[in-house]
Structure formats: C-alpha cells, structure tokens
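ok trying again, last paste got cut off:
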Amino acid sequence: MNIQRIDLNLLVYFDVLLRECSVTKAANRLGITQPAMSNGLKRLRVLFSDPLLVRTSEGMTPTDRAKELQPLIRTVVASAERAIQPIKSFSETDSNRVFRIMANDYAESTLIPKLLKRLSETAPGVRIDVMTPSDVSFLDVELGKVDLAINRFDSMPQSFHQITLWEDDFTCLMRKDNAIFEGEFDLDAYLSGRHVWVSKSGMGVGVGITPDMQHLGWVDEALGLTGNQRKIAVFTRHYQTAVHLAQDTDLIVTIPSKLARLFDNACQFISFPPPFEIPAFELKMAWSPLLHHSTDHRWIRGLLLECAQSCKQDD
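nice, full thing came through this time. structure:
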C-alpha cells in the first residue's frame, strides 16, 4: 500500500482511540465531532482489515491486531509531534523552570538531595516538584505531563526512553537492643523476628496485600526459595516509615543498602547483610519520547546522571 494515498490523520485517530477505548472520549480529546470520529474508525477498520475496537460487556475492547499496532503507531505519532516542536534555548542560570519528577521515597532520600545541592550551585531558580508513584500513571509520563519517572520498574511501555542510574542490594536494619540479636544474625534469627514489609515499584495507585501472602516482592520471593516465610507485622509503601518503625519497635526492616547507609551514624541501629541471597535491583530513570530532544530536559537528565554517579562513588 502506498503511504501517499493514506490520510495520516487516521494514525492520530487510532492513537487516541486506543488510549480512550471510546469514540466519544477520543472525539472530545481531538476536538472533533463524534460522527467524525466514528467515520475515522470506519476508515481505520478498512485500512487495517480489522475491527480494531469491539464492543463487549466491559465497553470497547481492542482486538489483538489493535494491540499489536498500538506501540508502532504511538512511536510514529510521537516522532511527528517531536518534529514540529519549536527548538527552545535553555539557560539554567536564568531559568525558573519547574521539573516534575516521580520518585519513590528511596530515590527521594538518596538521589534528590544531591540534585538539590547541584541546583543551588548552578541553577538557583530551577525548582523540583517530587511526586509519588501513586500520583502518576504511565500515561502522564508518556504525554509529557511528568518530566521523569525514577523507580524500580517491573515493566515499562516500549516507547519510553530509560536508563539505569545504579544497582543496589539489600541490608537488614534493627535496633541494637532487639531481643533476637545475640551476636549472630543468621537465618534462624531472621525468621524468629517480626518484620516490616516495604515495597513500591512501578507507578499508579497500588492494591492492598492479599491474605494468601502471595506476590509480596523480591525479598519474600527470595526467602521463599529457601522454603521459609517471615512473620510480617506491618505493610507499608514508604521506606522512611519502615525505618522509623524499626527505630521505635522490635521490628526488622530489609531495605536497599544505599538507604540503610544513611543511618550508619544512628547509634540505636545495627545492620547486617540478609542471611539469604536477594537479587540486586536496578533504579531506573524513564521519560517520554516527546521530551527526549528538549534542551532543558536533556540538561536535567544529564544533571541527574551526574548525581547518580556521585551516589555510586559514595558507596
């Protein structure tokens, strides 16, 4: 098929229809009438020889062919949008730009302080709006509403750009006067204690812990490989909260080592490597293809990479 004979606006229609899964919502987003969008869907069905969206009990549902086409067409549309964006100059010393960064409190505690120090030295007018993973969806990042997402990601849209900031392992932290500590912290000691579960990877509003204790994350999956299960007293999505709970109770926390090292000088704590093997994880930074070539965006990404390198050198 000759692309010159295709109305490329149909690709924009497809992109929005697959996001919204609704002719009415897609029409509203594009600022066209519902009949015009319905006509666009008919033309798309002819173009791809597939119904693309089928009405089911759950609403309009994409076909397998539509799901296959979606990332390809999203990339084409994003590239076109990027090509027509005006080139803007950027001067960090004069800028009062606000960068919106999604980061969990692990990254917020370890990486963001170094970023703020660098900003105070080189770009005093630049401000950072740190958002939690629950504040943000992948769509927000994809549309450029959020500049960067920094977290551990189990999965990520193929269209995103991403880079690994560092790898980290785990450390167990507890009070020095914890009753289970008798000079040796082995697996039996670990299992005899009560624990704080803490995890928040990915993005979006999370779901509650299920009673069957399945899918609890890397620490518990690694422990499960030894045929054991720890006694979890409390579940939280905040690492700092987990540390404070260990400070005020007899609970044990198993947290990323970079975060645990922030408490090396806290006299009430003692730390140990986990008495079983837990795979290391990667902290990643991800961003939309719409922002990839923006001069101010390239600058803040470069600065964050420098800060991440500084964090690695501190280990």
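cool. The mean pLDDT is 88. The longest helix spans residues 64-83.
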